[in-house]
Amino acid sequence: xxxxxxxxxxxxxxxxxxxxxxxxxxxxxxxxxxxxxxxxxxxxxxxxxxxxxxxxxxxxxxxxxxxxxxxxxxxxxxxxxxxxxxxxxxxxxxxxxxxxxxxxxxxxxxxxxxxxxxxxxxxxxxxxxxxxxxxxxxxxxxxxxxxxxxxxxxxxxxxxxxxxxxxxxxxxxxxxxxxxxxxxxxxxxxxxxxxxxxxxxxxxxxxxxxxxxxxxxxxxxxxxxxxxxxxxxxxxxxxxxxxxxxxxxxxxxxxxxxxxxxxxxxxxxxxxxxxxxxxxxxxxxxxxxxxxxxxxxxxxxxxxxxxxxxxxxxxxxxxxxxxxxxxxxxxxxxxxxxxxxxxxxxxxxxxxxxxxxxxxxxxxxxxxxxxxxxxxxxxxxxxxxxxxxxxxxxxxxxxxxxxxxxxxxxxxxxxxxxxxxxxxxxxxxxxxxxxxxxxxxxxxxxxxxxxxxxxxxxxxxxxxxxxxxxxxxxxxxxxxxxxxxxxxxxxx
Length: 492
Ligand SMILES: [Zn+2]
Prior knowledge:
This protein has about 500 residues and is α/β, with parallel strands linked by helices. The chain has helices at about 40-55, 75-80, 85-105, 120-130, 205-220, 235-250, 280-285, 290-295, 310-330, 340-360, 365-380, 390-405, 410-425, 435-440, 445-460, 465-475, and strands at about 5, 10-15, 25-30, 60-70, 110-115, 135, 145, 170, 180-190, 205, 225-230, 255-260, 260-265, 265-270, 305, 480-485, 485-490.
């Protein structure tokens, strides 16, 4: 197995390796569960899933942890505004996050760790930092990390700390990229505020300490790979390194992977620009989960992805092309024997696919290798030159492709139906969703039945009935494509 991955810490492409005799250990910064996830979040999670699935395909044993941030400034504020406990408030969004992972065929890691279930570990880590002189208690009862005590501060983000003022503090979890200041490890409770009673006094952990404590709990003081969106590099990841390495005296994560943000229609995604989309928004516009997932892998993780509606349509068509091709191979009958040129192209595609992913997870090249094979095999089949013994090797390459990209098995109907049920429950169905609701009033099974009935009607030359069925399906946005191998349907 081999994977050369860019390491933000060293600024170089390096071989990703486990420590001797151990599974590869990965800590992935997970969601803060205060709202529904947007497609920018899911670009990160899908790319980490590609990494995970590729390592598994290569036979690498994994110990992969993802945290769920279920206490932080935003959650405290929103739960208070909703008049709910933070537990009740976050439970809903944590469940929604897991549903969204499922919708996008993102595998769950070996461990999901909730911050609120690891308070003693965080307190222990803060106590250790105080003992070592790297943390101190402020007059407000909060605890802060003393940045001046950690000479390596800035090594990940390559931040220049010149002019930093010793003892200048910041209390909020998320702060501006220009302020390297002593940050809060533990926030003393204000009167009436939700808190834990601990040896540090009543309060709650800061955001950064969570990840340090939970990474160490599951993976040890040193582990192999830490992942996250590029926005987390500073201050979050820089602070994780400072806390962990000050406490242990050892390297925290050996390798850091940062996933670049996406643009939407060429612009930074923001609510004020009206280009801010959750996964559910897109599903309710009729886009399929597989197409969304596939678009999120269109360019390598370190490149900026421009997420557009045109791109989504292309992505839908690309997935459809792959599924149609597989069906053609499975159902078609080809002359016996093997076409040597196609066999060679199949082997080449398989090799290029793996080599592209080994090269810093180049998803664009890996996809291109597969589409090249599909193009060659399709045109060979059109000319009657594809042979039966070509089928199994091609399907094998596609199976490998799908172990990583996970778009070929069709769960799209179930996902969209789920989103529609959710929207109905939450009163989020709008005029724009009316057509979609009508289309999904027919289940996949019901459509299969109608298609079958139509095929029978055509065979018995009952063309009136066959046409009536086609018309009924068309009215519900379902398209039929007839081919030599039978009829296929898909939703518009
Ligand atoms: Zn984190």
